[in-house]
Design goal:
495 residues, 27 helices, 0% strand
Length: 495
């Protein structure tokens, strides 16, 4: 301490010099780093300008493959592989370009490099080159190695390199959760049937051992992307003792089946070879599972079966004690092939849960004219205000009001006229009013509709018809209001 007091000037000068040199060193690092980044991006821009059109031409077929490959092999330098990776994968390829891009990456040596890095066989030269690529030179080597492995897995999935699936399946066991997720998504993109069991096994572990880092959601999303032919691999999972595993397996099959049915309305699961056992499991076991979630998911798969037992099984689920099972059963029945069961579906309009009633309304709409007749009959006879509201909303959402108005104008005593009268009594008139206020082209329809609807005796109907009957602009309609409603002059006489 006395030394510091006696030599305070020297100490202050030494500290100042140390801080100055430290700041100069940091500034030097920043300048060098900026120069290196500038040279890097200048080189990348030059290569992109020179070889970008070559790659685009090879992928589109405008440039011969061998010629483009020969030109790309001219790229040299310690960062050659990195630059080739940036150039080839800069834009996500279209489906028709994937085979050419995959072959190009194989011939340029990129696939081999990605496979080696994913397997952890990263030599010192590769690591040094990676460290020189900005901005990763200041990151710790271990973390950088993880980034390179994850990027390699992502690239293999991007080009859908099928032979790499064993390495990606092995990466599902990696200690890093991020690498596990990248590998799962890459396997989902490649969709090699051999990797499906590995994902299923990992799904079981994720359920039975919740401490695992890879989430159930990620694994389920990966499994759903596989073709339906792989679904038979889920049969052991559908019979598993754990109810959550059975539910996840049933959910995966449901999404696969719905994807196939969306592109083919006549799709039937049990009419495809190899799926008979799977269909039987849903029809005879899963529809009666003790887990209500499993029963709910099974309803959609059963609806896509040609087996004549599918209808009765779904109707049995309409009586389930759990409301969301009944909900999924009603939604599954909303197909034209189940129109013969419209009477049973109509009973769901009186369900204790409002969501089930709403689904029943839409299911009857899907049955066509027969279902619509039942819907209108229930609308007119029920005393449940909430059920009426749901049906009225469905009439508007489905665009049925113009059809009802046209039928009412043609036949004033039909069921459609009674439905419109009830809508007016409920105050659901905005859609009808906007439909009638369409100008000159709707004159006759407007006149006939208001004449037929005005015959109804309910007090709300004349109160609504009178203001609506006022002429639309340039329509030529001049209905006469009753004399009791004529305005009076200031002196008290009628005008």
């Amino acid at each position: 301490m006395p030394f510091l007091i006696e030599h305070v000037t020297v100490v202050v000068f030494a500290l100042f010099t140390f801080l100055l040199l430290g700041n100069l060193f940091l500034v030097g690092i920043v300048i060098v780093r900026r120069k290196r980044r500038q040279r890097f991006f200048e080189r990348l821009d030059a290569l992109r300008e020179r070889y970008g059109p070559v790659i685009a031409g090879v992928l589109s077929g405008r440039i011969a493959y061998e010629q483009g490959l020969w030109e790309l092999r001219e790229i040299a330098g310690t960062d050659r592989l990195f630059m080739l990776e940036r150039l080839c994968l800069e834009n996500r390829p279209a489906s028709v370009e994937e085979p050419v891009l995959r072959r190009l990456c194989e011939d340029l040596g990129l696939v081999k490099t990605w496979q080696e890095r994913l397997a952890g066989q990263m030599d010192k030269t590769s690591l040094r080159r990676a460290l020189m690529d900005p901005p990763g030179w200041f990151i710790r080597v271990r973390f950088l190695s993880f980034l390179i492995r994850s990027k390699s897995a992502e690239n293999l999935g991007l080009i859908r390199h099928g032979p790499s699936w064993p390495l990606l399946a092995k990466a599902l066991e990696d200690p890093s959760p991020d690498l596990q997720g990248v590998a799962a998504r890459a396997l989902a993109a490649i969709r090699h049937p051999g990797s499906f069991p590995a994902l299923v096994e990992r799904l079981h572990k994720a359920v039975l051992e919740p401490g695992l880092l890879l989430s159930v959601r990620t694994l389920k999303s990966a499994l759903v992307g596989f073709p339906l032919e792989c679904a038979r691999e889920l049969l052991p999972s559908l019979r598993h003792a754990n109810p959550r595993i059975r539910f996840l397996a049933a959910d995966v099959v449901r999404e696969m089946v719905e994807r196939e049915a969306a592109g083919n309305p006549d799709f039937c699961l049990d009419q495809q070879s190899g799926n008979e056992e799977l269909a039987t499991a849903f029809l005879t076991k899963l529809a009666f599972d003790v887990n209500p979630d499993v029963r709910a998911q099974a309803a959609y798969v059963i609806a896509c079966l040609a087996d004549p037992r599918s209808g009765p099984v779904l109707l049995g689920l309409l009586k389930d004690s759990v409301w969301f099972v009944r909900l999924h059963a009603v939604r599954a029945l909303a197909r034209e092939k189940f129109a013969s069961h419209a009477g049973r579906v109509e009973t769901a309009l009186r369900d204790s849960n409002w969501r089930v009633r709403e689904a029943a309304v839409r299911a009857l709409r899907a049955f066509g004219p027969a279902g619509l007749d039942r819907l209108m009959a229930h609308f007119l006879t029920t005393e449940d205000r909430y059920s009426q509201e749901q049906i009225a909303d469905e009439f508007q959402r489905a665009g049925l009001i113009p059809q009802l108005v046209a039928q009412c104008a043609a036949d004033g005593n039909g069921q459609e006229t009674a439905v419109l009268s009830r809508l007016v009594e409920m105050g659901k008139t905005s859609y009808i009013t906007s439909l009638l206020d369409l100008g000159e082209g709707n004159r006759e329809l407007r006149r006939q509709f208001l004449r037929n609807l005005g015959k109804k005796s309910a007090p709300q109907i004349p109160q609504w018809v009178r203001p609506v009957a006022l002429p639309v602009p340039d329509s030529g309609i001049r209905p006469q209001a009753p004399s009791t409603l004529a305005p009076k002059h200031p002196n008290g006489t009628k005008g």
